[in-house]
Amino acid sequence: MPENSLFDHITLVLHQPRFAENIGASARAAWNMGLSHLIVVNPEDTDWERMTKLSTHMARGLLEKMKTFSSLAEALAPFQYIVGTTARLGGQRKEIIGPSQAARKIQSLDRQNRIAVLFGPENRGLSNEELRFCHCTVHIPTVSASSLNLAQAVLILSYEIFLAHQTPPFRIADCGLPNEEKSTLRSPETVEPASLVPRPSSFDFSNSEIRNPQPAIPLASSFELEGMYRHLSEALQMMDFLDKQNPELWMMSLRRFFSRIGLYSNEVRMIRGVCRQLKWFIGRYRPGPDQLRTPNSEP
Question: CA-to-CA distance for 226 and 133, rounded, in angstroms?
């Protein structure tokens, strides 16, 4: 199976898929759009014959190198940017974007960032707990039934990702032409990688001269972020800032904030350093059961 280096940093992740046929059909949909990496987490059925029946011979290579994990956290740990999908709206599912907007977000990231596009099980989709790993959440609008077949959803997202990476935009007129005559498809060998997602700014740097541009660096991985969120939750609970009965409710707002701005590894380490200092300070000077200890108290 030919691999497209333009999409080599993008992986489809199917969480708890129920049917082998849907895994195969999803693999074919991804392969048709140039995506060549697939992860399945806790699949109910991975019967090879039924998977390959729907993938056909074209996407067999994708299935042959498919990786399987038992833990979603473990599967997502190395990724710097995670796109989740949902058919349901409302409640804690805020800041939902459409497929084309998600694809443009992916295209804007430097290819040093490993990107995961996460799909939930066919019968229920992703839970709020599972969506907390995601930097953004995508909803595919429909007219009647809100949910799509898994492979249909994979195809729509993969197609939008394919379109977003075409420079200039893809033209139907080029279909069927020999490769040397196509003027529209983006060449990964000649096109510079897209810049990292810009931080929100009210300044216009369009006329600024950048004398010493910084090299592109990847965002913090899911593993790094989850460690930071645990550390932050512990520190805020020690300060009695979070509701100890339901700390995740408020932490979801923090997750959305940090996902929106995008953190680098050194920034995660800095935040964890602040958390360590807070925990040390609170542990040393917090009132005990029998007395109030202060910085000036005698030991």
Answer: 8
